[in-house]
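Worked example 2:
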Amino acid sequence: MHDGISYEQFGKPAVVLCTTPFEVTAKNIARMLGLPDYPFALLQHPLGSCTEEQIDGRAADAYRQAKQILLATN
């Protein structure tokens, strides 16, 4: 979260990817950095033990969310 916000502050578009168990932490970090509504892509957990098919699905979901985030900020 910190890196994504830092990139944005330097004028570089960024999308933070977060899995569900870390959603609260991501929101708290954004709030602590002064951007409580900072958008991020929320993905189903886990990633490391997924099948190729599951990874494809999560990647498609991440792409959809990232596209929406990036287009909303431009």
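The chain has a mean pLDDT of 95. The longest helix spans residues 52-73.
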